[in-house]
Predict the 3D structure of the following.
Amino acid sequence: MTSIDGVREARLTEIQTLPTSGARAAQPFRIGDAEFLAIPQLAYDIPGAPAHMNGGDSETSLRLLRRAGERFVPWRELAAPGGEDAEFFTVGERAFLAVASIRTGAGPYNYTAPSTVYEWDGEGFAPFQVFDTFAAKQWRHFTIGDTHFLALAQGVAVPGKETENRPSVIYAWDGDRFAHFQDIPSRWAYNWHAFDVDGAHFLAHADHVSPSVLYRWDGTRFTAHQQLADTAGRAFATFADPADGTRYLVVARIDDGSRVLRWEAGSGRFVEHQRLAGAGGRELAVVRTPNGLHVVRINFIHGTPADPTTALRSQIYRWDGARLETVAEFPTTGGTDVAVLDDQSAHPLLVVTNSLSADLRFAAESVVYRFTG
């Protein structure tokens, strides 16, 4: 085991490395007494082919691992070409795993790729519903009242694909399946985050080339409420100050640091509260322990896809009652996600996915850490 000590009061202790290839997300979930971890994979390395972060063979599988104590052991695999995301959720007694596939092929690539929602059948996952998607990046399940929504972030604005591009989509459960509910304008969408403030339901949508927008539920539809970032949006996290309950929204951007926004009840909007320096932000997670509240920021790359730097430092911030302060940094290579297990325990587990090695190969180990802070 190795330890990574921070500036103060935070430590990650490596528990296990997981062999992954272009790992894009980590989705922990429980079925009965068993705990699992789903890791979608973007691509495999092609022998003899030059290294490129947008290359590789997309005919990949999603890894399913089963938890055994603090470690994870291989369990099964699911077909999930060009895997970008996995989202576990339940509808009543039924359990589902939605997988987002960004592309198929090994060059040239087809971004019109089916994305599948699998259902647990008592022994494993079987296909339940297949969606026609374009450059799918993320699924997010959430509920408002008795309605189950499943939101898809999709699209890519690249030369030659403009006429094929599609908006993001929100689906709603109709009792038998997920049916189209509402399109959300987008060009290169990445992420969603659903949360409530002062009794209102909000849905944040991240986009790379168009503005990232916060939507508000008006009782029948999601309507644009305020802009959160002009470009380069990647991910969101929300938390409440443990002392006074003030709500905060963190917005990760890949090219211009991140922002901490504070909810103003009087205006009914979020206002800028703090800037977190450093580019590369790809994903965020809130870690709550008896000793305090932390936010983890996972950094993806610096530079451009044609000439990226993947070996970076990602950050752990601690809430000091007024601001987020950096208390630790740890190495990531093309970092894409962080999942928190055993939240609110003294020493939760963090699963960090790495999608690219320092030399731009997809074979890169993801890591399970024990968090102390």
Summary: Residues 1-7 have pLDDT under 50 and may be disordered. The first strand starts at residue 3 and ends at 5. Residues 148 and 217 are 14 Å apart (CA to CA). DSSP finds no helices and 31 strands in the chain.
